[in-house]
Amino acid sequence: MKTMRPFTTAVGAAVFALTTATAFGQIDVNNVDNLKPKWNFPAGPVTASPVLANGNLYAASWNGHIYALNPDDGSVVWDFDSGAGALLGSQSTPLITPAGNVCVGTSLAQVMCLDGSTGAPIWGPKSIGTPALDNIWSSMATANGVLYVSVASLLDQPCTTGRLLALDLNTGADVWTLQTVPDNVCMTDSATVCATNADCPNAGRCVAGRGAGITATVSFDPAGSALYMNTVGCFTYPSIGDSDSMFKVDAASGAVIWKTRVNAPEQFGECADDISIGCGLDSDCPTGTCTLPTCGDDPGITCSYDGDCPTGDCNQPKAYNDFGFLNG
């Protein structure tokens, strides 16, 4: 007997449902030509996977809207406008909670949980950072009544401080935060944590720690007592702190059980005689000349971003400056 099995996908600026007739409801090379559009809904740019649950199809769009659609005909069940369309809307796949609620994050650095049937807020939108700086790229995750939110940079211009947030699933109240880079580090030694310039070697500058964003959904052990996550680096900043690392974390407290770096940490400067060698001090280089980023309008000022300079021109010598479209 042949069966009609609809499935959905998000392409460009629409959500589509496709239907195929097969003996076992499977798609393969023998029947792929039978796929036909069943319906499409103009949802704006959608890059996160839609989710089928509660008899609805949920999709988050870059236009800032969270949609619940009827999976049979694409009609709107409800439409929640998060207000994030002014930036980049939402790129996170909606999380469906055990109670059937829908939790999403947006580029306004907000998190919210909505009633799965009506779209009414259960709680939120809750601010978890700075709009246009922080973003929730991945789907959130939940275990044992806690919602876990992965935070990374929106555009790496500049980079944010990576962190994992644990919130009460029912109320959105803060449970704990795990920050993955120090608040401040020294430009003359990115491994040195500082509060002021006086804490840095060779009269170096103390600058904000950035990077180690978490762009993927965390996973759990079978009991939900420990979680696993990974961090990324930043195109416009050296890899410092716990960037480019993998973690096992206590899910109840946020304490790190173990962590492993997969790439070596980086410094802010490069050696004049070998730019493949990162440095913070002249002594780090074979012939003793370390070049740190300086302001184009005042070479006496070391800088980590254009915003550090009087007229906004930081001459970063590092390879991360090669991404000209991202320079901040």
Can you give the helix content as a percent range? under 10%
Spans of at least 5 consecutive residues with low confidence? 1-11, 18-24, 319-328
Rg over alpha carbons:
23 Å
By CATH reckoning, the class of the domain at 1-98 would read Mainly Beta
Observed structural traits:
328 residues, five-stranded antiparallel beta sheet, disordered C terminus, disordered N terminus, Thrombin, subunit H, elongated
Can you give a write-up of this model?
There is one protein chain. By secondary structure, this protein is mainly β. It has a domain at 1-98: Thrombin, subunit H (Beta Barrel), CATH 2.40.10.480. Helix content is 0%, strand content 42%. It is built from no helices and 29 strands. A hairpin with a 6-residue loop joins β6 and β7 (76-81). The chain is elongated, with a radius of gyration of 23 Å. The chain starts with a strand and ends in a 13-residue tail after the last strand.
Task: Briefly say what this structure is.
With 328 residues, the chain is mostly beta strands. It is built from no helices and 29 strands. The strands form 8 sheets. Strands 12, 13, 14, 15 and 16 form a 5-stranded antiparallel sheet that branches. A 4-stranded antiparallel sheet has the order 4-5-6-7, with no helix packed on it.
